[in-house]
Each structure stands twice: as C-alpha cells, then as structure tokens.
Amino acid sequence: MVGRPAYNRLGKHFLGRLPMRVIEVMATRAAFGDLMADMRQWLDRNECPLVRCETERGGIRILVKVHFEDNALAERFRQAFRGSYAG
User: Fold this and answer.
1) What is the pTM of this model?
2) Cα–Cα distance between 72 and 84 in angstroms, integer?
3) Looking at residue 19, what is its pLDDT?
C-alpha cells in the first residue's frame, strides 16, 4: 500500500531506509493528558530525537505509538512507561 510504511515482526518501522523502533503505550482517556506530559518530560530529559508520535482511540482507551531511531532509547522509554513493541 502506497503511503503506509511497512512493519516487520520485531516492531521496527522503516521510513525510507532508516529502521525505527515503535513503542506502544496504552492509556485511559482520563489519564491521557498526564501521560503525554510525562512522556514529553521524559523525552526532553533524555534529549531524545523523537521521530514521530501517533495516537489511536478505541473506546475508553487511547493507544500512543512513539517512534525512535535509537534502540537503547526506545527500550528505556518502553521500561519507563510499561509499554510494548509494536508488531
């Protein structure tokens, strides 16, 4: 499909030639604002070159997908926010 990047089984997302790690974090609608503020603070504190952030709504929950170029940063983010790898 044109315009939609492909995902592989390891949660890596390819934009052009650069593989990116995608971390997914689930939040309730009530907690979403606080979660986004906490994520922004974490990203700033870790001087993270964020590539992209997406959200998907589903009922009372919101899925946040954060894309990273650096695998080590992605893993630290995953641990800090109890996330999972996409895919």
Assistant:
1) 0.76
2) 14
3) 67
CATH architecture, domain defined by 12-85: 2-Layer Sandwich (3.30)
Q: Which residue type, as a one-letter code, is found at position 86?
A: A
Q: How many Å apart are CA 35 and CA 17, to the nearest integer? A: 31
d(CA 5, CA 8): 10
- Domain coordinates in residue numbering, the chain: 12-85
Per the structure block, which two tokens stand in for 54? 């997406």
Q: What percent of the chain has pLDDT over 70?
A: 76
The whole-angstrom separation of Cα 20 and Cα 2 is: 19
Residue 52 clears pLDDT 50, i.e. is over it: yes
